[in-house]
Input
Amino acid sequence: MKLYAISDLHLDHQINSNAIDALPAFPEDWLILAGDICCTPKQLHFALMRLTQRFSQLLWVPGNHDLWSGVSDIKERGEAKYQKMVSICHEFGVLTPEDPYPLWEGEGGSHYLAPLFLLYDYSFRPSDISLEQAISWAREAGIVCTDEYYLDPTPHISRQAWCQARCDYSEQRLSELPKGIPRILINHYPLREDLVRLVRIPRFSIWCGTQRTKNWHLRFDASVVVSGHLHIRATDYRDGVRFEEVSLGYPRNWNQARGIEGYLRQILPAPTKTSNEK
Output
């Protein structure tokens, strides 16, 4: 009984959508879906119908694409869109950030699995750039995230406010977990700015997380932190904690000859450490 993870399936791309059907079954194993699975409720229904047939249990967290409105025939906005996606997950028995954190008892030993929905607040920026300047600073380099048009924070006054509310909620829930059992923190966005290595588009960093979570791996006794969003697969270590970026990405980001199976990242039991400790 192993724990795998993948993110950024982006099923609105037909190549990615077709590849789901070629994925073999892992009937004893669990799969983490770490965000950006799709844009529409219909696509999420498609994904979960297939993946729940291939894995014993799924866990889902939303990415920014999962929360988009104003595209296709999506009617819900902001929090309502999130709750719509959660409700579809619940139809299939998929665990979400709104459910009790499950206790993993498979290979790799006991761990609490903590799906999180934390968003971003534009704080992954240089210290001399104010919050008010952040988006214009990115625009100077020709970078604007599509979220600025399609990620509606309603009923929150801003994405920053939504991020703050989600961090408050998650901090409270994580602090209530029993002590002595390690946790696996699961979020779409990286929890630390130093893991956002975007060589070609460095100013996209403002849409990649929040400084508020930089020490959560220590504060909440994590053994592994799982994230996606960057489309740059990597294994890193900070303070002895393993950080896994588990993206598949757009068709240009992965080799279709390997299939999606080739991009499943094993979370538990822990693989041999291959990256530099920092």
In short: Residues 45 and 210 are 30 Å apart (CA to CA).
